[in-house]
Design a protein that fits this description.
By secondary structure, the chain is mainly alpha-helical. It has two domains: about 1-30, no CATH class; about 35-105, no CATH class. The chain is built from two helices and two strands. It has helices spanning about 60-65, 75-85, and strands at about 5, 10-15. A hairpin with a 5-residue loop joins strand 1 (about 5) and strand 2 (about 10-15). The radius of gyration is 21 Å and the shape is extended.
Length: about 110
């Protein structure tokens, strides 16, 4: 195996974890996209109804208007935590959202 330098200057074999991996620990994560089983959207109180005409269930938060503050859907969090616990996943006590807002309606 090829030797790679670690941030501390120690050398280790590529491909493992711990001290022999050059001080790096592999971390694997999943990003999952699902349809919410909630009455409202994830960050506002607009209905999460499927099949409606475009731009009928929108508000300033959905549209990303400057100055509006999204509020996380409590039920969505409860369902996500329930799923994580059922899958024996680790649930962090704090999450940070960096939500992208675009100032145009859904097309």
């Amino acid at each position: 195996m090829k030797e790679v330098p670690s941030p501390s200057g120690a050398r280790g074999a590529r491909g493992g974890s711990g001290p022999d991996a050059g001080g790096y620990e592999p971390v694997i994560a999943f990003e999952v996209h699902v349809e919410l089983a909630t009455r409202t959207k994830a960050f506002c109180s607009c209905p999460a109804a499927f099949g409606a005409e475009p731009n009928t269930h929108v508000c300033p938060v959905c549209l990303g208007h400057p100055g509006v503050l999204p509020v996380l859907n409590r039920r969505a969090v409860e369902l996500a935590v329930r799923a994580a616990l059922a899958l024996n996943c680790e649930v962090h006590l704090e999450s940070v959202f960096a939500r992208k807002n675009y100032f145009y309606p859904d097309l």
